Amino acid sequence: MKDRNFDDIAEKFSHNIYGTTKGKIRQAVLWQDLEKTLASMPDGPLHILDAGGGGGIMACEMAKRGHRVTFCDISETMLEKARQSAIENGVEDKIKFIHCAVQNVAERLDAPVDLVLFHAVLEWIDDQRGALYAVEQCLRPGGVLSLMFYNHDALLFRNVTLGNFDYIEAGMRKKKRRSLSPDNPLVPQQVEGWLSDMDMSVIEKSGVRIFHDYMQDKQHQQQYFDALLALELRYCRQEPFVSLGRYIHLVAQKPNASNVRDRSYE
């Protein structure tokens, strides 16, 4: 299996992910967590890596806040979309664009970074543990990883509520390549185990879209969006709701140099 390249569905991705109620909730929950994270980090401009950054929304926002951003994506189409967005936002001089897979970006960096944004990428990759290790290697000691991934447990729960038992029995494999449903959903417990193996400490955990996707009347997602968003932000860090999030957002910190033990992930 090859890692997913979005060249063929870039327009569809931009419209269906960023321009919807689910996209707005996703951004709101991420920023609620990131605002807290940024406030705890050193003063002054940070060096941020947006790994597999898609259309560049996060990269541009970080650049507008005065941070220095390195952006990479395997898709040339998404890379150009992000570059155009940077020009439109007047921050093209604060973002370095690299066309490469996330697994290869470490060798293209001048120095380790303070913060890695790794959002909704891991579920499109075959060797997920290897990719996670690759982006962790981009962090300086004490640096922070913002990781969001598609939640296998929530996908299972949703399909049970819909009565899709044949689909579940078949392993919940998606049928269409051009679908925006991710290829490889992840079990949160396993991802947290990988981070623990890397000596990364999870300091925040949120569920993204803990209510939205389970609403029976889809029109209510727009009709009552303000009330829905308020509830998403209120309960996204509380169990059992966190575990129901269609995506899980983890904020994890790399140990300082003095606390790093010898390890190998060959």
UniProtKB/TrEMBL annotation:
<feature type="binding site">
    <location>
        <begin position="52"/>
        <end position="53"/>
    </location>
    <ligand>
        <name>S-adenosyl-L-methionine</name>
    </ligand>
</feature>
<dbReference type="InterPro" id="IPR013216">
    <property type="entry name" value="Methyltransf_11"/>
</dbReference>
<keyword id="KW-0489">Methyltransferase</keyword>
<dbReference type="GO" id="GO:0032259">
    <property type="term" value="P:methylation"/>
</dbReference>
<feature type="binding site">
    <location>
        <position position="73"/>
    </location>
    <ligand>
        <name>S-adenosyl-L-methionine</name>
    </ligand>
</feature>
<feature type="binding site">
    <location>
        <position position="119"/>
    </location>
    <ligand>
        <name>S-adenosyl-L-methionine</name>
    </ligand>
</feature>
<dbReference type="GO" id="GO:0006400">
    <property type="term" value="P:tRNA modification"/>
</dbReference>
<dbReference type="Pfam" id="PF08241">
    <property type="entry name" value="Methyltransf_11"/>
</dbReference>
<dbReference type="InterPro" id="IPR029063">
    <property type="entry name" value="SAM-dependent_MTases_sf"/>
</dbReference>
<dbReference type="GO" id="GO:0097697">
    <property type="term" value="F:tRNA (5-carboxymethoxyuridine(34)-5-O)-methyltransferase activity"/>
</dbReference>
<comment type="function">
    <text>Catalyzes the methylation of 5-carboxymethoxyuridine (cmo5U) to form 5-methoxycarbonylmethoxyuridine (mcmo5U) at position 34 in tRNAs.</text>
</comment>
<protein>
    <recommendedName>
        <fullName>tRNA 5-carboxymethoxyuridine methyltransferase</fullName>
        <ecNumber>2.1.1.-</ecNumber>
    </recommendedName>
</protein>
<feature type="domain" description="Methyltransferase type 11">
    <location>
        <begin position="49"/>
        <end position="146"/>
    </location>
</feature>
<dbReference type="InterPro" id="IPR033664">
    <property type="entry name" value="Cmo5U_methylTrfase"/>
</dbReference>
<keyword id="KW-0808">Transferase</keyword>
<keyword id="KW-0949">S-adenosyl-L-methionine</keyword>
<dbReference type="GO" id="GO:0008757">
    <property type="term" value="F:S-adenosylmethionine-dependent methyltransferase activity"/>
</dbReference>
<feature type="binding site">
    <location>
        <position position="26"/>
    </location>
    <ligand>
        <name>S-adenosyl-L-methionine</name>
    </ligand>
</feature>
<comment type="similarity">
    <text>Belongs to the class I-like SAM-binding methyltransferase superfamily. CmoM family.</text>
</comment>
<keyword id="KW-0819">tRNA processing</keyword>
